[in-house]
Amino acid sequence: MTKFPFFTRVQLFVYSLFLSAIAFAQNSSPDLDVDVDVSKPGDAMGGDWMSNPLVWVIGALVLIVIIALVARGNNNRA
pLDDT of 46-69, one tens digit each? Predict the structure, then answer.
């Protein structure tokens, strides 16, 4: 069995205390009764436009075209 130096033991102890504090802080939350309404009436874009598959397809095509243009570069060398 190998012996750990004193500072390694202290560091291990401090790290374990730190991780315990983080885990305890996540575990103990007060019982908050928060009601969040994310559906705003009168949305200008229809409210549900990000879940439309057509938006994602067009966005992916634009991204591919931009990447292709950047990768192609400028071949006009003087």
Answer: 667 788 889 999 999 999 999 998
Look up the pTM and report it.
0.38
CB 47, CB 39: distance < 8 Å:
yes
- Reported as a single tens digit per residue, the pLDDT across 8-37 is 888 888 888 888 888 777 655 566 777 777
Handedness of CA 38, 43, 49, 50 (dihedral sign): negative
Domain coordinates in residue numbering, the chain: 50-77
Residue owning tokens 């928060």: 34
